[in-house]
Amino acid sequence: MHAPVAGSKPAPVVGTAYRPDIDGLRAVAVMSVVVFHAFPHVLRGGFIGVDIFFVISGFLITSIIVADLANGSFRLRTFYARRVKRIFPALIVVLLAVLLLGCILLYTDEYKELGKQVAASAGFAANLLFWKEANYFDLAAETKPLLHLWSLGIEEQYYILWPLLLWLCWRTRKRALPYLVGLLLVGSFLLNIRAMGTSPTEAFYSPLTRAWELFAGGLLAIASSPYTRPLLGAVPDTGHRSVVSDRLAASGIALLAASLILISRNTPFPGWAALLPVAATCMLVGAGPSSWVARRILSHPVLVGIGLISYPFYLWHWPLLVLTRAWMGEAGSAPLRCGGVALSAGLAWITYRFLERPIRFGQSPLRSVPLLGGALATLAGIGALAMTYGWTFQPGDLNSYAAYFDSFRTGVSPAREELVEINQNQCNFYNFESALPTRVPRDGISSDCYTSHSRRTVLLWGDSHSAHLFYGLRKTLPADTSLLLVYASGCRPHPIDLAKLTTDYCETSNAFALSTIKNVVPDVVVISFNNSFDTDYLREVSRDIKRIGVKRVIVLGLAPHWEPFLFKVVMQHYWQFTPARIATHLDQHALGIDKAFRNELQADEPFEYQSLHDFFCNREGCLIYLDRNRREGLVSFDNAHLRPLASLYLAEHLLTPLIQRDVRPLGLRDDAQPQRGRTGALDDRPAVQ
Question: Do residues 598 and 557 touch, judged by C-beta distance below 8 A?
């Protein structure tokens, strides 16, 4: 992701002197990211390595440009040619390798996605692609072989504009340079803070909300360079070893360690939290190469060696981990992941030694900038073709099965009609029609979702895991019962933050649900969602709504969650013989959430708890398909959302009898039983198609 400024034999680069401590800092950054990706529970904050890289890139690029501007040697064409020779070779090899491996290991649907990622990555727009796709319905991160190239996209977009801006400022008003960079830094940071409230994905992927980290490095370079330091007045020179530089570096290393420990996936990021790794990196770089930390730790030959291969190491590690998962159907054992990391390091060294160095510093015939540009453009074209046709070497029946379920992600036939029934998006406060992900809610939902038309009413409240119950209940509840639905994708019922009522769709949805309950006073409220349970709030809200006349509150546990998607489990492990129930590949995290909630329950809860896991699972395993059909009858189209047939099966055999337990439907004798639909005759024999 980031270019070392020197070869394996430390030597000066154009415009600035070589600093081995910066290569050592690169090593810390890349190892943090790699360990986080391979073992996320070992180093929870390892992803901040990207932020370290951003600061280093901003510092080095600005130092080089300022030095070249000062001595009159700066040329835009030369600058971009250096970037091409540095960035393109390793990227071309990795993209080509991933395309070739994908043909063998991936299914048609996965290869089409890979083609899209290759095309975007070759155009240095991966961050824009993943920003656009990063909504509630997006694929899991561990299925995207080139997800890590979002950071390369941001850097290259920075490289395109930053040299031109510095050159213009140098030519017109040099003294304004530090103030311009400072203004851009503050503006970008404020955009980042603002986006965290309305669209966290924008804050994460947008070049405008991430540029402040590169600007921080750039401002540090201006403050450190002998050519621009006078523009800031009296700035201490910490380039020599001193008490100040030693303390600054020690503080930086401590702050960096704190960042790795305290920041995690649950931390809103980047936001304010990104100040920690950015400030830490600025301290370490700003302390100079003569501090004790720089000389004794960061300049250690092992760290410097890893830093020199950090760019290809970063490029190789994530695709190998993801493709291993695709091959194994799971993350794999710790030794296997260690092997993947070791292979990445080996390929990184080979790439650096036999590709990068000859092209950058030697007489390789591949040094031609047009040749490298043409090769990358060709890969972009191949990616576009792969995105369209999805060629793979997988058997046709497997590809056909994968393509069928891929239609649920793309929303095309034959899944379109089924998704309408399951999603019930007319009742969803999540703005699923937005071109870019946002937390700003839709203006409103259909009045049919919250208007009762009969004297008996049932209301579903939660997230999409309440919406997928709607189909079955609508088919099985008596005609004199109104079924209402208020939900927002990815939102559990929780205490409402009134300050975010109009800016966060979760707050809007929960407030509207409570308002609907107050206005309609349904007989039964069914709460269902796919998240951890706030037991105290569920108790509080259940008591509150029962006081206003709601007769019963039912809280559903989590349905079985599969790892990975259920159809992938079938394809990878049960294709030749597919039993109706399996006991493997259940998501242990989801099971833990459900178990923890059960353990908190008391005998006198104001709500009724119903386990969906117990309904779908028995000693033989969990139900995976109905009607002896592993395609149309598969219970879930992803990892947990029920399909219409499964929704109907659940309603017939559990939910409708549970809801109607204390109600005698009109015209139904006391000894009558609820009518069983076609899913009632469940056949647990192996699938025949």
Answer: yes
C-alpha to C-alpha distance for 324 and 331, rounded to whole angstroms: 7
Secondary structure (3-state) at 433? coil
Give just the sign of the alpha carbon dihedral 505, 526, 538, 589.
Answer: negative
Instruction: Tell me the sheet residues that pair with 556.
Output: 610
Q: Is it true that the peptide bond before 414 is cis, omega within 30 degrees of 0?
A: yes
Percent of the chain with pLDDT over 90: 80
Angle at 522 between CA 517 and CA 527, to 5 degrees: 70
pLDDT number for residue 643: 97
Are 193 and 223 in contact by the 8 Å Cβ rule? The answer is no
> Of 441, 440, 439, 460, whose CA–CA distance to 450 is shortest?
460
DSSP 16-45: B---HHHHHHHHHHHHHHHHHHH-TTTSTT
DSSP state of 268: -
Residue 593 carries which side chain, given as an amino acid letter? I
Q: How far apart are CA 224 and CA 633, in angstroms?
A: 66
Cα angle value 88/83/302 (rounded, 5°): 80
Query: Can you read off the two tokens belonging to residue 178?
Result: 């530090």
Backbone angles phi, psi at 549, to 5 degrees: 125, -5
DSSP secondary structure code for residue 689 in this structure: -
CA-to-CA separations, 98 to 104, 123, 340, 576, 676, in angstroms, rounded: 10, 16, 14, 28, 50
3-state DSSP call for residue 679?
helix
Average pLDDT, the chain: 90
Q: What is the 3-state secondary structure of 208-249? A: HHHHHHHHHHHHHHHHHCCCCHHHHCCCCCCCCCCHHHHHHH
pLDDT per residue over 610-642, tens digit each? 999 999 999 999 999 999 999 999 999 999 999
Read off the pLDDT of each residue in 107-117 and give the average, rounded to a whole number: 93
DSSP state letter for 14: T
Tokens matching residue 76:
């835009």
- Helix, coil or strand: residue 618: strand
Q: Model confidence at 137, in pLDDT bands (50, 70, 90)?
A: low
Residues in the chain: 689
689 pLDDT higher than 50: no
**pTM beyond 0.90, yes or no:** no
Q: In what order do the strands lie in the sheet with 621-623?
A: 581-582, 621-623, 617-618
CA distance 166 to 66: 8
DSSP per residue, 434-492:
-SS--SSPPS---GGGT---SSEEEEEEESHHHHHHHHHHHHHS-TTEEEEEEE-TT--
Whether the upstream peptide bond of residue 441 has omega within 30° of 0, thus cis, is no
pLDDT tens digit sequence for 367-392: 789 999 999 999 999 999 999 988 88
